[in-house]
Design a protein that fits this description.
Elements lengths: L2 H9 L1 H8 L16 H31 L1 H12 L6 H7 L2 H6 L1 H11 L1 H19 L5 H15 L2 H12 L5 H27 L9 H23 L16 H15 L9 H6 L4 H30 L5 H7 L1 H21 L3 H20 L3 H28 L4 H25 L9 H33 L22
Membrane topology: Multi-pass membrane protein
Main location: membrane
InterPro entries: MFS (IPR011701), MFS_dom (IPR020846), MFS_trans_sf (IPR036259)
Length: 492
């Protein structure tokens, strides 16, 4: 490694940090840091271990905590709390009201105080909330704690989506998003088995088995929140102690390569007008609608799959808890494979359409075939297609926006619509439609078809805009201060 290159890297770190917020041209080009390709890979692997695996593990717990109602319901919660009529649907969906409302301010807070503090604190608090769910006496108390859980978890997923998008270039983020969400799928895969094991604690300390599901998982959440304070990292431009896992030159190299990719490594000074102006871009709402369609299906599966396996397919309670795992394990394979292909071939829209086609094929099989075994095969296709589209949609929107405050607004809007999809997913499989649940199946088919239509329209739109940019007729994607990146093109 050339000593002159080392000197340039070390002497200009602080100057380049300050220049990132304004003139991009003053930053040191990433290739001028003197790192060999192997050294660059080692740096990114360190980032992956500290960032992707940590937020993935925390999201694993988050997803488990918000979707364990189905397991608890068939473990006796429905009987103990008198969940008659629409009460189960109410406590399922009421979580999403504060979850949606509190997401936009959360992306502002996380930028101000840093993800390390923000994510660790809310994880610790919602773990305590989960423990409280194990001691409720009636369904109203459970509904109240679900509201509190929604407030606390509102800041988690959009902050993670935002954080991941700031660390990686546009064609690295697909695999990372897939691994991040894949860890969550592992949680979904084994949450049923864990819940079945915890059910066996029924009678211990005079508590029913479903209560132990909440108590033990709440304790796990609090422990992970405490660990997260030391394991999480901040934004790549931050000057905090979480940078101790990278040296000064390594830090600046990460910032420079992201800046070279899209020119927005640091945010402009915050103002409400700049933040909200992103809402004038119709593409932001198109990405959000894709995520709404996707999460309608994923949450419907998360909340009702154990119930469908029991009532519709005739499996026992224990078998239903365990049979949830294999479809989610298969979804993890599809998720990583499509994320890898999307990054390698620089594709986003076709990946989303491929996953949607799996859902379109699987939903009629799951709902209408005469054989329970074949219907269970349909569950594999639906679970894989729907869940693989979560990181695919995350990468689609992350690739096609510029500017940190627009990225923050888009992440909040994107995940808020995912919360609305959670409300829809809580309602589509109604108790009065048991055991066939045909209206719910039709709703899932409709939302999946709408995703394919939106992606098709966006693809044609992006091709036209990119063509105009290639001919020098326009520039694409300004940031909050109306700065353009000349080489930026949409990914479709």
């Amino acid at each position: 490694m050339a000593s002159s290159q080392e000197k340039v890297g070390f002497e200009n770190v602080e100057a380049a940090d300050s220049d990132h917020a304004g003139s991009k041209g003053a930053a040191i080009p990433a290739e001028d840091f003197g790192f060999t390709p192997e050294e660059q890979k080692k740096i990114m692997r360190r980032v992956d271990r500290r960032l992707v695996l940590t937020v993935g593990a925390m999201y694993c717990i988050s997803l488990m905590d918000r979707t364990n109602l189905g397991a608890a319901n068939i473990a006796g919660m429905g009987k103990d709390l008198l969940l008659i009529g629409d009460r189960y649907s109410i406590i399922s969906l009421i979580f999403f009201v504060p979850y949606i409302i509190f997401q936009p301010p959360s992306t502002i807070i996380v930028r101000k105080i840093g993800p390390r503090i923000h994510l660790a604190i809310i994880t610790l608090f919602w773990g305590a909330c989960m423990i409280g769910m194990g001691f409720v006496k009636n369904w109203e108390q459970m509904a109240g704690l679900r509201v509190l859980l929604g407030v606390l978890e509102a800041g988690f997923f959009p902050s993670c989506v935002y954080l991941l998008s700031t660390w990686y270039t546009r064609y690295e983020v697909g695999k990372r998003n897939s691994v991040f969400y894949l860890v969550g799928c592992v949680a979904s895969a084994f949450a049923g088995i864990l819940a079945y094991g915890l059910m066996q604690m029924a009678g211990l300390a005079g508590l029913n088995g479903w209560r132990w599901i909440f108590i033990i998982e709440g304790i796990m959440t609090m422990l992970l929140g405490i660990a997260g304070y030391w394991l999480l990292v901040d934004f790549p431009d931050a000057k905090r102690e979480s940078w101790s896992f990278l040296g000064a030159r390594e830090k600046e190299w990460v910032c420079s390569r992201v800046d070279a990719d899209r020119g927005d490594v640091k945010p402009q000074p915050f103002s409400v007008a700049k933040y909200l102006r992103a809402g004038l871009d119709i593409k932001v709402w198109a990405y959000a609608m894709i995520f709404f369609n996707t999460t309608t299906v994923t949450y419907a599966l998360a909340y009702f799959l154990p119930i469908i396996l029991t009532q519709n397919m005739g499996f026992s309670v224990g078998a239903s808890q365990c049979l949830v795992a294999p479809p989610y394990a298969f979804a993890g394979i599809i998720m990583y494979a499509t994320g890898w292909a999307g990054d390698k071939y620089r594709l986003r829209g076709p990946i989303i359409v491929f996953n949607a086609l799996m859902c379109i094929i699987g939903l009629p099989i799951m709902g209408f075939h005469s054989s329970p075994a074949v219907r269970y095969f349909g569950v594999f296709l639906v679970t894989a297609g729907a869940n693989a589209n979560v990181p695919a949609a995350m990468s689609y929107q992350a690739n096609n926006i510029r500017g940190q405050w627009k990225r923050a607004f888009c992440s909040a809007t994107f995940v808020s619509f995912g919360g609305i999809g959670g409300i829809a997913g809580s309602l589509v499989f109604r108790s009065q439609d048991a055991p066939a649940y045909k209206p719910g199946l039709y709703a899932c088919i409709a939302t999946t078809l709408l995703t394919m239509i939106i992606v098709g329209v966006m693809t044609l739109y992006f091709r036209r805009l990119n063509g105009q940019a290639d001919r020098g007729e326009r520039e694409l994607e300004c940031d909050a201060d109306d700065n353009y990146e000349p080489g930026f093109r949409y990914t479709y």
